[in-house]
Amino acid sequence: MAADERLTENPYAPAYGHAYRHGAVPTREAARRMREWAARHAPLPLDLFGLLGLNHLYYGGGIDGIGVTSGTPKVYLVFYGSQWTSGGDPNGAATYLQNLFRGIGTGGELWSGAMTQYCDGPTVPAGASTCDPSTTPHVGYPSSGALAGVWFDTAAPSPSNATAAQLAQEAIRGAGHFGNTTAAANRYAQYVVVSPSGTHPDGFNTPTSAFCAWHDYTTSSYGDLAYTNMPYVTDQGANCGQNFVNGGSAGLLDGFSIVNGHEYAETLTDQNPPGGWTSLLGQENGDECAWINSGQGAAANVSMGNGAYAMQSTWSNDTNECDISHPIL
What we know:
By secondary structure, the chain is α/β, with parallel strands linked by helices.
């Protein structure tokens, strides 16, 4: 998706009126409307944005000393609600997501390489546009897979329309369940709160919603926790990525890996948003490259140690483009 006005100012953007929806994946329809609005309101032609460096990412200085996941990433999947054992997963998304995060970082995959160029730490000034990963803490590569834990929280049903506060609380409960009860245990962790089919977390799949997923962080007695609101995206079909890369039954779950991969990559590079790496227009590395279906940066199947998954590209400062593959730094 081309750069446009700041995401909180575009009335078709998921973050409009909802600033906590960091790095939100817009539905494909919302993305189209965002581009049309930007074309009418941008101060210069959109095709000049890249030439002027407006797609470039800059370091935000960190929040609570956290900018990026400058260690080995750990993903904890929290399947929210008793519906997961009573018809709430008609398409087998739970198994698919577990396999996706087991696969990331294995089989020599280079999709993760683009993220390893981004860094944080006391020697990286706010506003930096480059950093030397050999001398500064930088995003790690999960060579043994990113999945660190899975919890089906089936003690009670997931709310029909969970609020952002309820999703944050579920991430906190997840941290407690996994025994991650210190800031150190959560420094390189992210919690993916996955809601079952038929629910509408933060208004997902309702007339007033325009997103497929988003990420944020919350404070807690366990330290700052990075988390993703991951709805059951096949409830929106092609609008959230079904069959975006693969046709027929092979592409049924494309949206789960494209959308959750987008949020995973953004959490790595902007763990406590917006203290990590964002553009002057407020976009993160996944936002810059969402829903590209042809040419440079087009979404594609990425081979990992346990299979291939449909993934979108992410923005790379050092190549000045959306990359689906990048050397590990």
